[in-house]
Specification:
Elements (H helix, E strand, L loop, with lengths): L5 H17 L22 E3 L1 H9 L3 H14 L1 H6 L2 E7 L3 E6 L1 H14 L13 E5 L11 H19 L3 E8 L4 H17 L15 H13 L8 H26 L6 E4 H6 L2 H11 L3 E4 L2 E4 L10 E4 L7 H14 L4 E7 L6 H10 L7 E6 L2 E5 L2 E2 L12 H8 L1 H8 L8 E4 H5 L6 H21 L19 H22 L4 H20 L8 H25 L8
Parallel strand pairs: 4-5, 4-10, 5-6, 10-11, 12-14
Antiparallel strand pairs: 1-3, 2-3, 7-8, 8-9, 12-13
Helix pairs in contact: 1-3, 2-3, 5-18, 5-20, 7-8, 7-9, 11-12, 14-15, 17-19, 17-20, 18-19, 18-20, 19-20
Length: 563
């Protein structure tokens, strides 16, 4: 459905009133909507109402469409509005409406009057939604995969808030378990190495150079204190020190990447507050868990899994899955109507298991969504590149940000569906040409800002938001296309929100910037001799600036006034 500005509201209401009055036995919840056609010769907006009615009335859709068109053409309100140029019937029963210049002029006024609220929708009705993302274990710096997940999660949260949800952003910190134990042992090994003693990094330990820095910091603070402390006594210290230091670095990198969280949830909270045992008890009482071979098992085969899964091992230690069951139960216990997780693509097979755990703990798995984040392939001038990395395994996020900037990094991470692999060319991200979509969009914003500044520097006053834009401006195809794109913004927001799809907005912005540059090249603005035409074009670019700024804000990308 297209975004409902004032003119569309009138068309929409009129169409549905005609259907209700002209046809009998129509379901009370039947509603006809408009769509933007894919091809120029199909009008500016179109409806498939006749074809939908044909299935209900068992009648030829063309006959129904002809009746609707006749009623639309004879409707006094529509005729007096001046919004419609002509209406056509297209096979097999589409009703295509060609809009007049007055419609587009009104659309510009709507953007100007709504300002930064243009495109905002109330899809969530202020219901609570939690978006949990990044959640990288504090065992090493953030890599570019984490960065892509951070950008996606952040923009999903921004879009949901813009569309009426009460959003909480959460980061889950795995501060317990074997990985953190290995971090402690790995840091201790580096400590011994730097002090000239024999050391051995655990088989599944962490080999990154960053641990040497942490070990040196410990030496600077504590000297040789831990050389004579038994390993089983000192590992906890090295684990906590390194984990906290790495987490501080992660938070710093995220802040520079414009990512903020409402809550950091630590896994140890689940253990300390008996939430895992409580969740396991709930599963047993409801016959979703059983004991065998000294362990506690989840009946995942009841949920189409190929085998049951261990929750509590025979040695009494809980599995990661048990913690995840308890954690997601806790999310719903906190009153979230919807829960969204952002995971790496390698966790695809884990989704069904977590959904099963959610259902088994008495919650609705349909209220749980997972966004998968695919790999990022770094390129330089089209060639694969291996950047230096201190993490020992992955390219660090801050390396990319330092080279191309936060704006470009965020935008490029969002240019494709999150579950599709992404090629990120570092050289293109640094170009100041139309090849770089970030530069192309920001330049459009800055160019508009410059035109408006120059107009005011000439001692002139900008027209008000309801200035009557001359309809003949929209005889220019570039002006018409540009404003048509503005009317699509609420649709794009709705799509991005309902489908948790930030890439929709980057694609939209690229198209909008292109349409603006084309308009700018074919329409004189400041030096137009006809003052009304000049003022009308000024209001069009003011509206474009509002939408570009709004969309960049949702993407967490700066909108520069000058470049």
């Amino acid at each position: 459905m297209i975004g409902e500005n004032n003119a569309v509201v009138l068309l929409h209401e009129t169409l549905n009133k005609i259907i209700a009055s002209e046809f009998e036995n129509i379901p009370s919840d039947f509603g006809a909507d408009f769509e933007h056609p894919k091809h120029e010769n199909q009008g500016d907006i179109s409806t498939n109402a006749a074809m939908r009615l044909a299935k209900i009335l068992k009648t030829n859709p063309k006959i129904i469409a002809e009746k609707i068109i006749a009623a639309l053409n004879s409707n006094d309100t529509l005729k007096n509005s001046g919004y419609i140029e002509k209406i056509e019937l297209a096979n097999p029963g589409f009703i295509n409406i060609f809009l007049a210049g007055k419609f587009f002029a009104g659309a510009v006024n709507d953007v100007l009057n709504q300002n930064n609220n243009y495109g905002a929708l109330n899809l969530g009705n202020n219901k609570k939604v939690q978006v949990e993302f990044v959640s990288a274990n504090p065992t090493g710096p953030l890599h570019i995969g984490h960065g892509r997940g951070a950008a996606v999660g952040d923009v999903v949260a921004r879009v949901l808030k813009f569309t009426g949800w009460d959003v909480q952003r959460e980061y889950y910190i795995n501060d317990a378990g074997l990985q953190m134990e290995n971090l402690g042992r790995s840091t201790r090994a580096r400590y011994f190495e730097l002090l000239g003693h024999d050391f051995e990094i655990p088989e599944n330990g962490y080999k990154g150079e960053y641990l040497k820095d942490i070990a040196q910091e410990i030496i600077n603070k504590y000297g040789e204190k831990f050389l004579n402390v038994p390993e089983n006594e000192s590992v906890a210290f090295f684990r906590d020190y390194a984990g906290n230091k790495i987490l501080d670095g992660i938070k710093k990198d995220l802040k520079e990447f414009r990512i903020e969280f409402d809550k950091y949830f630590v896994e140890s909270y689940l253990h300390e507050n008996n939430l895992i045992n409580s969740a396991m008890k709930f599963l047993k009482e409801n016959n979703y868990a059983y004991e065998a071979d000294g362990a506690l098992w989840f009946k995942s085969t009841d949920f189409d899994d190929d085998k049951d899964r261990v929750l509590i091992r025979a040695n009494g230690v809980s599995t990661y899955f048990a913690a995840d069951v308890a954690y997601h139960k806790n999310k719903f216990d906190r009153g979230f109507a919807r829960v969204i997780d952002v995971w790496g693509a390698d966790h695809h097979g884990y989704i069904a298991r977590v959904k099963a755990g959610i259902k088994a703990t008495g919650n609705d798995p349909e209220k749980f969504d997972v966004l998968l984040i695919q790999l990022v392939n770094l390129l330089r001038g089209g060639e694969a590149v291996n950047m230096s990395t201190r993490s020992g395994e992955f390219v660090e996020l801050n390396e990319v940000v330092n080279e191309v900037g936060t704006d470009a990094t965020r935008f490029f991470f969002l240019t494709r569906r999150s579950d599709s692999q992404l090629d990120f060319d570092l050289e293109i991200a640094k170009e100041q040409t139309s090849n770089n979509p970030v530069y192309y969009i920001q330049y459009a914003y800055a160019r508009i800002s410059g035109v408006l500044r120059e107009f005011e520097n000439r001692g002139k006053i900008l027209p008000d938001n309801n200035f009557e834009i001359p309809a003949e401006i929209f005889n220019n195809k570039d002006a018409r296309l540009l404003v048509e794109l503005l009317t699509k913004y609420p649709d794009e927001i709705k799509n991005a929100s309902e489908n948790l799809a930030p890439h929709v907005l980057t694609g939209y912005l690229i198209n909008l910037a292109g349409a603006f540059h084309a308009f700018y090249n074919t329409n004189v603005i400041l030096n137009e001799p006809d003052e009304k035409i000049s003022l009308g074009r000024l209001n069009i670019i003011r509206a474009v600036k509002i939408v570009i700024g709004s969309c960049l804000e949702l993407l967490g990308v700066n909108a520069p006034e000058r470049m």
